Every structure is written in C-alpha cells, then in structure tokens.
Amino acid sequence: MKIAVIHQPQYLPYLGFFHKLYHSDVFVVMDSVQFERRGIQHRNKIKTNKGEQWLTVPVFHSSREEERIDQVQIDSELPWSRKHWQTLLTNYSPAPYFEKYADQLQELLAKEWNHLCELDMALIQWVMEILGIDKPIFYLSSLGVEGSKSSLLIDACKAVGADTYLSGSGGKRYMDMSAFAAAGIATIWQEFNSPSYVQLFPELGFLPNLSILDTLFCCGPETHKFLELN
Predict the structure, then answer these.
(1) Strands 51-56 and 43-48, how do they pair?
(2) Distance between CA 144 and CA 136 in Å, rounded?
(3) Could you count the other beta carbons within 10 Å of the beta carbon of residue 192?
(4) pLDDT tens-digit profile of 19-46?
C-alpha cells in the first residue's frame, strides 16, 4: 500500500496538516489549483493575550477569475514579514521552546519571497524537518494531470504510483467514491482531533487548530507525539 496526501500549500498550517503528512507515503502539493482568497493559503491564526489573531501575507489581486496558487505573487512593498515576526516575538517569546526555533524562523521569514507557494512550501518543509517527516514531495503542476475534484485526485495518485488516498473528513462531501473504486484507488479518512496542551495566556482557555507555531513553541520536541495519534 502506498498512501498519497494531496493538499494545497498553506501558510504555517495547523497540527492536523502535519498529522496527515505523517500518516502518508507521498505528498502531492496542489499548486496548480485555484487560489482561495481569504482562505488559509496566505494566512493563519496564532494566540495572543487578546485571543486569536490572523497573520496574513499580502498578495497582489489578479484580474483573472481563476488564479492558480503557483501564480500568486506576494506584495513585498508591505513590511509583512517584519510585522509577523514582531507579532510572534511579542506573543510567544515567553513560550518554553520559542528560542529553540526562533532564529531559523526569523531567517526564513526575512528572505525575499516573490511567490506565495514558494514561501508556504519553504515553511512547511522546515516544519517537516523539525518533526522528522521525511516524505517525497511532488508538485501537481509537474505531473501533467488535469481535471477537477475526484478525477484530478485519482490521476494524481496514479501519477505518483499511489494506490491509496488519505483524505480529510471534508472529502466525504464532494468525492465520487464510485470513481475511486473503479480506478482501483482505495480511500482512507484522516482521524484527527486537536489535542490539548499547555498554551500561553491560559486565562483565555485552550484555542484549538492554531498555526503549528503555537504547538512548536509550547511543546517543542513533544509535538511529535501528537502525530502518532489516530
């Protein structure tokens, strides 16, 4: 059995994203599908003393109705990376593992990034390395597959030699299971419930599904144990 995860790149995604990668054999990056404005491809949430706060990477607005993720350009005229770093420093510097990851993260954010997909994937691969998730990565744009929804997923699985597709529970709403069966691609569903851990600002209660940074800064190497949960 060879399990594929097929997912859009996201900006510093939550723990569940990496849980899915951990339980796969190959990661297909959906870089050539439509960019979702106000989605989490260019933003994510952290915890502050006032509650959740978005960190948003500013991007240029295209006149094209269906702009691909790999075409989206970052608006570097805005000092977004400095603001993101300062916000992280202000809110997470007291965290027990902030210093362990701070220098590398600051260095990554400070680089000159032109395209959103490149930034997202650099950060995702950085986290994968920290968590010991060593999986081959393929980009949908390089696989020569087309189509939409189920047909695209099926063809992508075939292109990377996978016979099983690992999907989030949301896939049940749109996937054509008969098409997967006909193509000989098995389907398994990710089972992930956000685990609780000791966060900063405990007076606000536990806030689930924040950026992976919250988990790393608070739990450090112990983050890996959450990946093993079924």
Answers:
(1) antiparallel
(2) 18
(3) 19
(4) 999 999 999 999 999 999 889 999 999 9
With cut-offs at 50, 70 and 90, classify the pLDDT of residue 230. low
Would you put residue 201 in left (φ > 0), alpha (ψ -120 to 50) or beta?
left
pLDDT tens column, 134-152: 999 999 999 999 887 899 9
Sign, Cα dihedral of 70, 5, 122, 9: positive
**Average pLDDT value over all residues in the chain:** 94
In the chain, what is the greatest distance between 2 CA atoms, to the nearest angstrom?
53
- H-helix or E-strand spanning residue 47: strand 43-48
Q: What is the SS3 string spanning 83-150?
A: HHHHHHHHHHCCCCCHHHHHHHHHHHHHCCCCEHHHHHHHHHHHHHHHHCCCCCEEEHHHCCCCCCHH
pTM: 0.96
Query: How many Å apart are CA 140 and CA 49, to the nearest integer?
Result: 39
**pLDDT value at residue 65:** 65
Please check the confidence at residue 64 and state whether its pLDDT lies above 80.
no
CA distance 5 to 23: 9
Is-contact 139 29, C-beta < 8 A?
A: yes
CB count in 10 Å sphere of residue 102: 17
